Amino acid sequence: MLTMGVCEPASRALWPHEFQYLQRHNFVSSDESKFGSNGGTVKNDQSRPTVKNEQWSIDRFLRVRNDEVLTQADTDLKDVESGVEAHLKLKPHQHADVTMRVGREMGITVVQPRHGDTLIAIQIAAMQSLEEAGADILSTVTDPYTRQLEFANAAKALEESERVGRSMVSGYPVVAMGVERTKEIVASVSKPCSVRMASKDSRLAKEIYLAAGYTYMFMGPVQNLAYEKWATPEALIQNYQYDDRLIAYYGELGAPVVKEFPATLTGTLVPPCIAVASSLLDAMLAVTQGVKHIVVNYGMLGNLVQDVAAMRVLRTLANEKLTQLGDDLEIYLAVPQWMGDFPHDDPQAYAVILNGAFNAAMGEADEVITKSLDEAFGVPSKQSNAAGVRTTRQMLGLLKGQRLEDSPELEEEIDDIRLSVNAILDAVVRLGEGDVAVGTAAAIRGGIIDVPFSPNLCNASRAMPIRDLNGAVRWLDPGDVPVPDSVRLRHKHLVGRRLKTRPEKSPLNLVTEDITGFSKGLSVDRSTPREHAAR
User: What average pLDDT does range 311-321 have in this prediction?
Assistant: First the structure.
């Protein structure tokens, strides 16, 4: 049986609430010699499940399904074949693989917004509103209790929401709802339904979504470093191997499912090489399990040249790396609009949304994940969400057929990102002695893959990003990320130009400004008038 495991805190004392969590889940001993009065010693023997990048047999998959997944909660799930039957009853335009394929053939960028509500009637109304606004794929965001496997609390939140007539938590409690009720959502719209869910263990929830007729899945283990403090990379990889084998099994039985591998990570100053490598590694692991319909993902940072360069590198490397691992693949590129801080003012929020749509069009993305005007305040209203869809759709229509022309600046940025991504992937392969699963886990623990500002205790957190004078994200300090010397020197030069304009502030003060700086405009407080003139 799979043990989830937790990452051991590296050379620091545990906070009391951290120790209590570990003690409740039997991951620490009562020996207080290591951490003093507030802690114990982490039990490392349970923290690292064995992983291997090989396709699970159906026997293994069904054994884990029966022993580990279906036992997590009482649901109305049946066998996988029953879920496949639900897919076969869908109309062609409700299948995400058809939508993605038709969009590419017609040169139309697919638009997917996000929405999650506890009450099914409100979730349905929101998805119908988004469909009317022009969305091509309609997503459901899962509630936080379900994401943390607190199914009893999710059921209580649903009961309380139904009692008061409004959502008491954000997101849809899919495990509490079950298959038959979730089918009502699929039946209420004519577009494909998608899942947006990050969790250390999404296996049961994904089973229910798929059995209900959802045809677009989401998330991979490396991306989950941005969401999970305690889970080990090995446990995340193993759980997502199950998810991916489930998706592949549906496809083998005649029900193709699209899988997106996001790389927004923390959504905060993630350098392109980390984002691109993250999406590629998650996709490579999935292709090994037999997933055929792949959507790689790049989280836009706001600088046009850098974003377009990263999209081009990701598309090229995805086609190069993934086709070496699997046959008959369909590979697409999705870009979510800005995932970080958002302006409170509606016109400024519109500008951020338009920036995402513009950069996606210039980079020839196959799909855009939209944002709303309410991002600065919390869960968006259906009206605000629909406005984001209409705004994005209008901009994409105006820019159809246009792309950013090649230039020395763009080529330099492409070389920068490609060299860095290849260095990371090469290091992963070496660490795993050819096994991508083993190498990915080792690369995370060793800082080869270092996600800025990740809460995960296995993440090295030695690397530090910063924006340059043009708003592009660079390395202030790459830590142990294997950035080639030529790229290091380039970033040092570009970052140094900005540091010279702000000698009164430390580099970390500038990083702090950058974390919340996008909502104020990337050019705000970046350089002196003299520096602007020099440029």
Answer: 98
- Residue 25 to residue 44: CA distance in whole angstroms: 13
Distance CA 116, CA 114 (A): 7
Residue 413 has pLDDT above 70, yes or no: yes
Residue type, 518: F
- Could you tell me where the DSSP H helices lie in 26-70? 58-64
Report, as an integer, the average pLDDT of 315-343.
Answer: 96
Whether the Cβ atoms of residue 131 and residue 138 lie closer than 8 Å to each other: yes
- Helix, strand, coil % over all residues of the chain, rounded to 5: 50, 10, 40
Question: Of 62-66, 233-237, 345-349, 412-416, which gets the smallest average pLDDT?
Answer: 345-349
Domains 58-398 and 462-535 share a fold: no
**What is the widest separation between alpha-carbon atoms in the chain?**
68
Question: CATH says 58-398 is which class?
Answer: alpha beta
- Per residue in 201-241, pLDDT (tens digit) is 999 999 999 999 999 999 999 999 899 999 999 999 999 99
What average pLDDT does the segment 1-30 reach?
51
| pLDDT at position 518 | 80
**Any bridge partners for residue 206, and if so which?**
none
In contact, 355 and 338? CB cutoff 8 Å? yes
User: DSSP readout, 294-309?
Assistant: EEEE----S-HHHHHH
Q: What 3-state DSSP class applies to 336?
A: strand
Domain ranges, ordered by start, for the chain: 58-398, 462-535
Cβ atoms of 55 and 437 closer than 8 Å: no
> Taking the mean position of all CA atoms in its chain, how far away is CA 46?
27
Indicate whether 470 pLDDT > 80: yes
- The answer to whether residue 26 scores a pLDDT higher than 80 is no
- Tokens 């009206």 correspond to 383
Our measurement of the distance from residue 367's CA atom to the centroid of its chain's CA atoms, rounded to an integer in Å, reads 14
Q: How many CB atoms lie within 10 A of CB 104?
A: 16
Mean of pLDDT over the chain: 90
The length of the chain, given as a count of residues: 535
Which CATH code of 1.10.3470, 3.40.1130, 3.40.50, 3.90.970 fits the domain covering 462-535? Answer: 3.90.970
Alpha helices in 65-95 (DSSP H): 80-88
* Spatial distance between the Cα atoms of 408 and 401, rounded to a whole number of angstroms: 22
pTM of the full predicted structure? 0.91
| 486: CB partners within 8 A, 6+ apart | 419
